[in-house]
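Session log. Operator J.P. requested a structure for one protein chain; no other inputs attached. Running the standard single-chain path with token output.
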Amino acid sequence: MTTTRPSARRTARTPATEPLRTPQARPAAHPASNPGAQPAAHPRRAVVAVQRVFGAENPNFYLLLGTTLFLVIFGLVMVLSSSSVEVGARTGDFFASFQRQGFYAILGVPLMLVASRVPAVFWKRAAWAALIGTSVLQLAVFIPGVGINYQGNQNWIHIGSFTAQPSELVKLSLALWLGWVLAAKQNLLGDWKHVFIPIGPVAAVAIGLVLLGKDLGTALILLSIVLGCLFYGGVRLRILGAAIGIVGFVVFLFTRFSSNRTNRIDAWLSGCTSKSDQLGTCWQTIHGWWGIASGGIFGSGLGESKVKWSWLPEADNDFIFAIIGDELGLIGAIVVLVLFVVLALSFIRIIRASDDPFVRVSTSGIMIWIIGQAFVNIAVVLGLLPVLGVPLPLISAGGSSLIASLVGIGIVLSYARHTPVKL
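Structure written below.
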């Protein structure tokens, strides 16, 4: 390349009209002018590129993301503490459950960040396909050799070394689908026929597949997602009240047709006062109470719980909140409650900030799923509800629940990324 020198006849400029050029301000030579030179590295450009991938100029985004990551890390610590004794006695590897949960977290967090980059229009277009696909997966639990029966519930699939709970993905796809339908019917929601069709039949099929597997706890969470989306979608209260009445009647009939569920509900209503209940149906509930009571205000110390020594079933899953209360005390339990309240406020801020009906309804469905399930789990451990068998989102052991929850939160993060802030 030929370098052209400025003309000597050009009038020299004074320092007042042209600032001195320091060597640092001199532009870099083009690579073509020096074939042997390598392009200089630009660390600032790399930082800017990362910020463009994962950044968002929205405090709602960071509030939701930060709270979620904190709950995931906290959950890993509590899974290690609550599972090490039993899994060590059973397999000889005290870290097996923790390593498995850590793998799910390493997989789920990047999926959440990827989902946060996808525009809302993609999730709107994928709603139908997602619901059909997850419903087909839910049907697979009834295939011999694929479906797994765990503690009376036929709600798992097992293919090779891969184990999953499809109903967790049904929760996410149902929230997206309800957002799509209610957004499309915004001007027709005053007519109960437009509310019932197609929401009634489609939701009944999705929830019915879960009920066929005898998983009442998950079915109740799915029902709450439907009712919550109807509320946030703008359905009239008289129609919503009628829907709640019908759902309550169906749930009552379903529980009465199962002697196991009837016994659990009767024992819960009696306060677990019968000795036979204390040694049978209420064993898990009572030992959860003992764990929380022994923690006091400050807790017995991380790793020092006694009930996790084969006294409390599902200590790392459905009843992990009892271990939190035992080892971290009342303070630790309150911190967990506050974190879920902050998570709920993050969802609500994103709902209020958006003018898109699809975003508002699907976000409300994901919020009711995660926050509602969290408080149902805590209420079960405290004895305020009968045992339903639902995990504590983002904290309990379980890959399907963790990954589905993180992807759901990633979708809401994608909404927050492109939504102006409204307090």
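Operator note: Residues 66-417 form one domain.
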